[in-house]
Amino acid sequence: MKLILASASPRRERLLKKLVKRFSVKAAHIDETIHAGEPFSRACVRLAEKKARKVFDKQSVVIGADTIAYFRKKNFRKTSDARKAESILLFLRGKTHYVITGVCVTFPSGKQVKYSVKAAVKMKNFSNSELVSYLKSGEWKGRAGCYDISGKGAKLVQSVKGEKETVVGLPIKKLKNILSSA
What we know:
Layout: E1 2-6, H1 10-16, E2 24-25, H2 40-54, E3 60-71, E4 74-76, H3 82-92, E5 96-106, E6 112-123, H4 128-137, E7 157-161, H5 164-168, H6 172-180
Parallel strand pairs: 1-2, 1-3
Antiparallel strand pairs: 3-4, 3-5, 5-6, 6-7
C-alpha cells in the first residue's frame, strides 16, 4: 500500500522516515485559519484532516498533520516577518508554553484515525544576542512558535515535557501503532 505525507515540512518527512522507508510527499496548501473560540486541540486536528482530504488518494494511506504553539489563549503560528518572530520569541523567553500537533491518517476505505498530542516547552531565559543570532539564521520562518527544536532553535529551549516529535511536528509513537495495524 502506498503512503503519502500531506505536508511540505522537511521535519515531518524526516520523522516519518523513522517509521517507514518509502512514501511520497505531497504538499497540501490549505487555509490554516483557526476559528474564533476554537480550542487549539480541535483546530489542529481539523486542519490535519483538511490536509489529508486535500491530497486523498483511494490507493494510498494519507497522513496530514498540523502544529500549534500557544500560551494560554494566544497562539503563535508560522510567520515570515522577522519583527513578529522577534516579538513572539521575546514573549516566550523564560516561559513554559504548549505545542500541540494534530494528526489525521486517512485510509483508502475512507476510514480516518484522528488524534492530537501535546507537549510543554520551557524556553530558556536566552540573551538578546542569542535571539539576534537565531533570527539571523532564518530558521524560524514557517515554524509554529518561531523556532525549530530539531535545529538551532534547540539552543533556546530549556526542556520539553512530552514527546519531542510533537514539537517538531509529527508525534510518531501513536502513529507507529496506527500504521502497523493498517
